[in-house]
Design goal:
The structure is a homodimer.
Chain A lengths: L8 E4 L1 H5 L9 H12 L5 E6 L12 H7 L7 E5 L3 H8 L5 E7 L2 H8 L3 H15 L5 E7 L12 H12 L5 E5 L7 H15 L3 E5 L7 H10 L4 E4 L19 H10 L8 H15 L6 H5 L26
Helix pairs in contact in A: 2-3, 2-11, 4-6, 7-8, 8-9, 10-11
Chain lengths: 322, 322
């Protein structure tokens, strides 16, 4: 396989993008223990928490305590979401490896998600970039609704590239293209990733897929086709879809790693360790998670062979599964 | 897109592969009404029912009544599962378009699923082929566990090709390669489909994926890469996985059609009509179905834009979804 030596870089987002949606507060010590466990799994990056207003996202009101409490594993970048200069100052005081800035490339979603126009967001994030640049901390910009807006529909690739260009001119280190509500489809992903790589190949390009319509792993294949090597994923598939109750949200880390490893990629991530961490999630958050692998097991987790003599009644009933 | 004109052929299996697992009997009239509805959706083929022993699969004990009750749409092949010569005789009396024979290519799964050794199955199915050949009814062979056995693990592609060869020599019209418990992964699918197409390209080759570990649509992309144009799918994703309670089974028709249509393929299937049919399933079978699209809607089913003035408190709360 030519994939055998292809190195991929995974960013775990469950403790930020997943936990921010949880209604019950998760104890700071439990967050720290989980992140320390994730630090041993082989991720390239962990999005630990968010330095947003505790009023806006109370679930992550312990951002400082979490960042001060976790042990830093060598080789892992600890990134945090930062919405404004105040958040950047808080983040910088916690020795973060990267700040992750977020805005939507569609106007309606940005207004709904961040209570600002896109231009207002850009001005605010440019201030953050000004405050962080030169501090030795990497700056990533996550562009939400990059593959479709749940209110406006199609988002032209040209719009995505324009916003990338504006941020690239400010000297950011990387972009995450987010399929915020699971609207991306493989042909679109292939085309957008090819254009983004052509234009901004010198920067780190990460893809953030949601499995809302079942396409997250198919879209991952398409992104790999286009040369993308960095992916966000969420332990257990944690992180819902605000527009579709009951639908899954973020692509599930263990499902992504399982497929990529089978296909011969080097994800860096230890699947067994990730599955162990994922198995603890329902107890931690008080509800089931969408992960299919947690239910079905890995591909080669085998089941007992049937007893009995073929053709006789002591065999299991004929079932005709195809 | 070069996919624009690529014609695909979908086979709906919910009323056979899905209904056979249901514990509550679905009324014959309801089955007929659903199949008539599916006949208007544009499928190339519908696997209507199974002529197995009513004792083995009581859910499908009304196979004759269903076959006699449905209206035949021009251009749709009505196929049925047939396990033995008795079943073939019953099927032939009902004017079926195709008989579908099933065995597993792994010994343990065949014993568990069909209470026979593979050799016993082959002899029995060869008898069926002898009885049906020359009657103007097509013969398809579904090879279960073609991409992995839940009891034995890896199934070598060479084993799959050997069984295909033995059946091809008996004059069958097509094969369905079944990923019975969702063990297939894309690189494997690409390789197996390429070999199967090389060796048996003159016959109809269909792929039957399960979404047990989330890879069904990714595997579909891989099969398309290898030139496969025929796919099984199940309305609502009906049809569970016997080895993993709570895990999904068959790939969901509406999710498959949704992706393929977005990617520019001509599936023949009317997505809106299929979604309407799928929405009736929970009422018919008395429980929820795994379909994500039923929950999330199609990609461009849009949501209301937010009211309020950006930057003010009358906007929705800041949420920072990425």
């Amino acid at each position: 396989m030519t994939n055998q030596t292809k190195k991929l870089y995974l960013n775990e987002v469950a403790t930020r993008d997943g936990f921010q949606n949880e209604t019950a507060f998760i104890d700071t010590d439990d967050k720290i223990a989980l992140i320390d466990r994730l630090s041993a799994c082989g991720y390239a990056k962990i999005e630990v928490t968010s330095f947003t207003s505790p009023k806006a996202i109370p679930a992550l009101r312990d951002a400082e305590a979490v960042m001060h409490g976790i042990a830093r594993a060598p080789g892992v970048v600890y990134t945090v979401l930062v919405p404004n200069v105040r958040g950047a100052e808080r983040a910088l005081s916690c020795n973060v490896g990267e700040v992750n800035l977020v805005m939507s490339v569609s106007e309606s979603h940005n207004r709904s998600n961040l209570r600002m126009t896109r231009e207002q967001s850009f001005v605010q994030l440019a201030d953050v970039i000004g405050a962080v640049r030169g501090c030795g901390v990497a700056i990533n910009v996550s562009l939400s609704t990059a593959m479709g807006c749940p209110m406006e529909g199609e988002v032209p690739a040209a719009t995505v590239l324009e916003w990338m260009q504006r941020f690239a001119e400010l000297g950011v280190n990387g972009f995450t293209l987010c399929d915020t509500t699971g609207m991306a489809h493989p042909a679109q992903v292939r085309a957008l990733c090819a254009r983004a790589s052509d234009a901004f190949g010198a920067l780190e390009l990460t893809l953030h897929f949601h499995n809302t319509r079942g396409m997250a792993l198919a879209n991952t294949l398409a992104a790999l086709d286009a040369g993308i090597v960095r992916f966000d994923a969420s332990l257990g598939g944690l992180g819902g879809c605000p527009y579709a109750p009951g639908a899954t949200g973020n692509v599930c880390t263990e499902e992504l790693v399982h497929m990529l490893e089978l296909d011969g990629y080097d994800t860096g991530v230890d699947l067994a360790a990730v599955l162990e961490a994922a198995a603890r999630l329902p107890g931690l958050i008080g509800h089931d998670v969408p992960s299919q692998i947690l239910k079905a097991g890995r591909r080669l987790d085998l089941h007992p062979r049937p007893a009995g003599v073929p053709g006789t009644r002591d065999m299991p009933a004929q079932r005709a599964f195809s």
